[in-house]
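PROTOCOL LOG
Step 1. Enter all chains and additional molecules of the complex.
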Amino acid sequence: MNPPIIKDEMTPAAPTAPSPKADAPAPAVEELPVEMDRLNDLTEGNADSIRELVDLFFKQTTRQLAQLEAAVRANKADDVRRVAHSCAGASATLGMTRFVPLLRELEKQGASGALTTAAQVYEDAAREFKLIQNFLAAQLNPAAPPPDAAHS
Amino acid sequence: MKKILIIEDDQIVANIYRNKLAVEGYQAEVALDGETGLKVMRTFQPDAIVLDLVLPKMSGVEVIKEIRSEADFSKLPIIVFSNTYLTNLIQDAWKAGATKCVSKINCPPQELFELMRRTIGGVVAVSPARPKTEGALATKPAKFTSETDAEFQVEFRETFIASLPATLTVMRAGLQSLIKSDTEVARLKHIHELYRRVHAVNGNAGIAGLVQIAHLAAALEALLKELHEKPKNINSSTLHTVAAAVDFLGFLFEHGTRPEEQEIPPASILVVDDEVISRRAIIYALEKAQLQSVSVEDPNAAFKLLSENQFDLVLLDVDMPGMTGYELCNKLRSLPMHKKTPVVFVTRLDDFNNRTKSMMAGGNDFIAKPFLFIELTVKALIHVLRDKFQPANDRESSGFRLPTS
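Step 2. Run joint prediction.
Step 3. Record the structure below.
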């Protein structure tokens, strides 16, 4: 009854996202901030469900980023690890492909107890979150101006 | 006489449906791929089309779009055979202009006939015409009358069951080739071959009334399709799930063919994850297979629930505040009623590759975050179905443990 053995060298076919460095160059191939297929799959393409889920994600992530900023400033490594872990889980589930590696880096630094570049990584994550918000706003309300433009 | 065109690449399945429609008084033709189907449609001028969505060369959705682009056929009823686990594909079919979508899992010939009668009207039954295309069942139309549907299904089931050992051998060989592949091109080729094979099992099992095999095959087919379309999702977790599904199909081929025991057993599933979006994703994946669950965010609340209730499957996040998934698993193993309850950890890929903690904690299986929703569906189906064959007090928790090498 045991499944066939899978050799470890088989894994994975596609490289996992590398741990980002604060000064890492931008990827050569432009990657969209959100994998819309996952959002569509999770909501079965229902526009109201997507909006509700996105709204939940925005509220939760806004709160978590504020917690992360405070934890980084206070050098509370375990708080950084815990919040980044939770935020990364939700973001990965929804297909936030560029956001997740930044959060994983924060989680890693938090777990190691050395928040060496955490402040810079946090800034990158906050910037990426803005891009996600703009991207999703454009996807869900094509006629509306992006949040940045509306506030400028 | 009303005319029906069946576009279906599995010739056995196509012939069975054609024969049934023929004995019920319809004139039915078969095309084995989309391009041929479109050509036949223009000359045959059918009153309705029965279309499989998964076809070689040209997809079913592309076929629908082509049909709808031609003025003569813009209103033609198109009945689509779909896999309920391919939700995006079904949506695409609706958008392209499908009239009805029916699941292959639950569509024996009589169901198709009833559906056709409701859609384009009934006809007076005539003597069955011999089918024009060749196929394994092409010599049996005379026996295939409304009165002998059940008899036919028994006969078809026996033939199908007899073919299952050979099918399993081919599937296992394909799986081994997939696992040994060292390039993405080779992997995709083997995934596609396995996908076609599983697709055929799904269709034939549905006609044979073997719902459990059809369900698992349909879910595995959807997982393989997703891996083929998005190769970046091929990793140790997804490959392990594919391997476990093929393995369990083999088990069902041997032990799950009793027609009177084909229901998907109701299951009680507990989901424990402190993060709301992850919980929602897990619940959604379970609902794909109509599996109901209870979800909690607090591991202590989960332990209380476990202390008071029997569950058939527990899905655990690992990193939770207050108590880790490993700790919760250890604790639940102290409860007599959960000594053998399957526990699946939902965790990061890095942790997936480091399995020791899970094994030590008494876990049975792993799935890596961010998981493909259909991957979790397949995994849950395996555990729930397996539970039916192996009552809790007999279950060996090592049965579906991860390979340790």
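Step 4. Note key features.
Strands of chain B lie at 3-7, 27-31, 48-52, 78-82, 100-103, 269-272, 293-296, 313-317, 343-348, 365-369.
Chain B has three domains: 3-144, 154-255, 269-389.
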